[in-house]
Amino acid sequence: MIFSKRSRYGIRALIDLAQHGSGGSIQLSEIAERNGISVKYLEQIFSALRKAGIIGSVKGPQGGYFLAGPPGSLTAAEIILALDGIYFLDKEEASGNGEAAARAVQEKIIGPLNGWLDGFLRSLTLKELVECAEQYGDADQNMYYI
Question: What is the pTM (predicted TM-score) of this model?
Fold first, then answer.
């Protein structure tokens, strides 16, 4: 299973883009600054997301990036696939004496986990992630320190 820093940062950046991009495009430097991610690394991530059709871009001094569709139609699975290529556990393989055990592990552990993971990531939308982030943001604003 792969859930790399690239995917984590990509999801964080897309949450930020969804939160702040309703008025148009957002510059990468703004997203990078708010999230503590280097601009160079975000350039690589956004290049992959643009190629996958998840985001669009506008060139020029007032340019930036925007979501290509509504946050409710974009799933975590699509984002991770665009950035990492795959998120499944590797198939269990063995030969000889270990083949029966490997088949058991594949059938009873890896196969069901991959099925659950796929269903979960395909049902989780960017909109849900944005709503969750906003709840945490609201909670942070209501904290009082003495």
Answer: 0.87
